[in-house]
Design goal:
This protein has helices at residues 3-9, 25-36, 48-62, 76-90, 115-143, 164-184, 202-209, 215-221, 230-241, 278-286; strands at residues 16-20, 40-45, 66-70, 95-98, 146-151, 189-196, 252-255. It is globular, with a radius of gyration of 18 Å. Helix 2 runs parallel beside helix 3, helix 2 crosses helix 9 and helix 5 packs parallel to helix 6. Helix content is 46%, strand content 13%. By secondary structure, the protein is α/β, with parallel strands linked by helices. Strands 3-2-1-4-5-6-7 form a seven-stranded parallel beta sheet, with helices on both faces. It contains ten helices and seven strands. It has one domain: NAD(P)-binding Rossmann-like Domain (Rossmann fold, 3-Layer(aba) Sandwich), CATH 3.40.50. It comes from Variovorax defluvii. Keywords: Oxidoreductase.
């Protein structure tokens, strides 16, 4: 296989990728990886200034066309306007990454969880992904090519207590992903989801710093013995976005260091390493990494 052909298989050159929640965390890491592969990038975020800074950082680092916009993804009019603006600036959306999301505000049993918290989870994660997909599918179908990647979670695959709203939303994302994958599969569009494990995003790092989560507890459950980095999830999403990934459809891909497939978390598989295990992983991505603004 020639080097040129090999590179083309991993390229998104000439494509346009729109990432919601793209100003930080997994969203920004995904936008960066798609930009590294040559895609133009539209960053959509609730905070307009953060979205603008993220787009500027990506354009500066990777030399690709970038634009930004602000939208509450649960607002149908705002979604349509933001996507229309992105298409006006860059052209039709080829890749949609539905990364906008919010965390469970507090860990609580069902009896103590306000229904408003559950509704908020559903609105951002599920309604948002639905509205954004609705807006881009006609153009993708007309061009005969599209990639939609949703964000599930290990909580969409496992039963964990005191997170019911988040779990409901992520299980719904799995159902939406599979249903839509069948619906649009013969239009040249694939629909997949990634299910991240415990990832060191800015939000989870803040929870670690506040003592709300314990690094070692969740690292121990994963056979990898560590948490993941946003770049590792972004790498998986960019792979699903490639033209060469067209035979992968309706998949919920765990990116979790083996967290969901470990049968007995009490079985002795050796001591989990400390956070220092992340150093070589950070180094692996450092050459193509742009710090989130």
């Amino acid at each position: 296989m020639s080097t040129t052909h090999s590179r083309s298989l991993g390229s998104l050159h000439g494509r346009v990728t729109l990432v919601t929640g793209g100003a930080q965390g997994i969203g920004f890491a995904t936008a960066a990886e798609c930009a590294r592969r040559g895609s133009a990038i539209a960053v959509i975020d609730l905070n307009e200034e953060n979205a603008r800074r993220a787009a500027q950082a990506l354009a500066r680092r990777f030399g690709v066309e970038c634009t930004s916009g602000a939208a509450d993804v649960a607002d149908a009019d705002a979604v349509r306007a933001a996507i229309a603006a992105g298409e006006k600036a860059l052209g039709g959306i080829d890749v949609l990454v539905n990364c906008a999301g919010i965390m469970t505000p507090r860990l609580a049993p069902v009896t103590d969880t306000p229904v408003a918290d559950v509704q908020a989870m559903f609105d951002i994660h599920v309604r948002g992904a639905y509205l954004c997909s609705q807006a881009v599918i006609p153009g993708m179908a007309a061009r005969g090519f599209g990639r939609i990647v949703n964000i599930s979670s290990v909580l969409g695959l496992l039963g964990l207590p005191n997170r019911s709203g988040y779990a409901i939303a992520k299980h719904a994302i799995n159902g939406f992903t599979r249903s839509l994958a069948v619906e649009v599969g013969r239009l040249g569009i694939t629909v997949n989801a990634v299910a991240p494990g415990y990832i060191l995003t800015e939000t989870l790092q803040a929870r670690l710093d506040a003592g709300m989560l314990d690094y070692r507890t969740y690292a121990e459950r994963a056979p990898a013995g560590r948490w993941g980095l946003p770049e590792e999830v972004g790498h998986a999403i960019a792979f699903l976005a490639l033209p060469a990934s067209g035979f992968i459809n309706g998949v919920i891909l765990p990116v979790d260091g083996g967290f969901t497939m470990r049968g007995d978390p009490g079985e002795d598989i050796g001591e989990a390493p400390g956070v220092e295990r992340l150093a070589p992983v950070r180094a692996l991505f450092a050459s193509g990494r742009e710090t989130s603004p």
